[in-house]
Amino acid sequence: MAQDITLKVAGKPYRLSAATPEMEQLMRLAAADVSAMMTKFDARFPDSSPEDKLVFVAIQEAAGKLSAQKKMSNLIEEVEALQGDVEAYLEGMMKK
After folding, report:
1. CA of 85: how far to CAs of 72, 78, 80, 88, in Å?
2. What is the rounded distance in angstroms from the CA atom of residue 7 to the CA atom of residue 12?
3. Where are the beta strands (DSSP E) in the chain?
4. pLDDT tens digits for 17-55?
5. What is the DSSP string of 13-72?
């Protein structure tokens, strides 16, 4: 059952709905992370608009997501290769 929650991002409250307690926890962590990044960008780019800083956050997060997806893809390929090696080894052992 979805639960309505209020999250503050960069000092502004947002009402959202979390489908599960786990999702609520992730959303709260994400909001805190975005707020922390906004604070860093406030210090680095004091003359930039809040919208620009949110774009910086979005690009940084999207790049992190893409990097994680690439690493996951590489890991899956490694696992599949290892699985093939194990299967070949076991087949060789059964022939002996």
Report:
1. 20, 10, 9, 5
2. 8
3. 3-9, 12-18
4. 999 999 999 999 999 999 999 999 999 999 999 999 999
5. EEEEEESSHHHHHHHHHHHHHHHHHHHHHHHH-TTS-HHHHHHHHHHHHHHHHHHHHHHH
